[in-house]
Amino acid sequence: MQHIKFDKTVCGVNLLLNTIDFQSECPFEVSSETVSADYFQIFFLKKANGFLKLNDELLTLKPNSIVFISKHQHHSWHVDFSKFEGQLLLFQDDFLNDFFSDQYFLIRLLYFYQTKFPLIMDVDATYIHNHLLKLSEIKYELVNPKSDSVHIIRSLLYYILINLNRNYSQQNNLKEAISADNTAYQFRKLVEKHIYNYQRVEDYASLMNISRISLNKAVKNQFNVTVTEFIKSRLLFEIKMKLIHTSKTVSEIAHVFHFSEANHLSRFFKQKTGLSPIEFRLDYQNGTSL
User: Fold this and answer.
1) Residues 6 or more apart from 29 whose CB is under 8 A from it?
2) 138 contacts 156 by C-beta, under 8 angstroms
3) Which is it for strands 35-37 and 2-4: parallel, antiparallel or unpaired?
4) 114: alpha, beta or left, given left = phi > 0 and alpha = psi -120 to 50?
5) Are 56 and 80 in contact (CB under 8 A)?
6) pLDDT at position 180, please?
7) In degrees, to the nearest 5, what angle opens at C-alpha 99 toward C-alphas 176 and 55?
8) Alpha-carbon distance 74 to 30, whole Å?
9) What is the pLDDT of residues 78-112, one digit of tens each?
């Protein structure tokens, strides 16, 4: 499987941020093969049909929709490119966190690193149109930089990302407010970094030097799940990715995630999905789990 790295020289922009119009002459193509990337992507689709395989989900594409793809997520596009119209916003996470002087900025956005709710959002034509205009403004400033371009780009980009977060929250009945307390976001960021090695509440409480009670309260207030539920959801997602996108055996996957025995992983997986890991892999390969 191909892993694509960000090319900051593509389409006339020398920055770890870009916007790409699908109708332009920029040599950027979406792939029908399964790929992953080291950057984040938001597709603003004015016109589209077909479907997107994203992680273990099959997303039906339609006009006036927005798709969110986080770094390292596996995806492949199956579309009629003659009816594919819109723009793509893409960026590196470290760049964006630095750009907004907030190390938790990406983690605060609910549509990234999301494992529970859809990674696609339906909007109306006016919403898409307004955001495409803002993306075009960003592109203009990127390719025609002036002394104050960075301020214009920062303001437009901040508006787009936060406005998307508001609408995504509303559509999925999530807590919209972004808390000033970084405890929950620090935890979320640590889970993304350490889920392969740490799967206990005590591990993260120790890393953060706080009590289990304080950690659980912060996570519950912000994400409406317990710390245990959050960790298990993320662990389950990563196991699914190994079953779908690698040929590793259940024993090998158990070793990767530090299960003492393969049957412990199988028991955990079946409790969460109703299927054994082998059944899940076969269902996916046969197309019955999509």
Assistant:
1) none
2) yes
3) parallel
4) beta
5) no
6) 66
7) 60
8) 13
9) 988 777 899 999 999 989 989 999 888 998 899 99
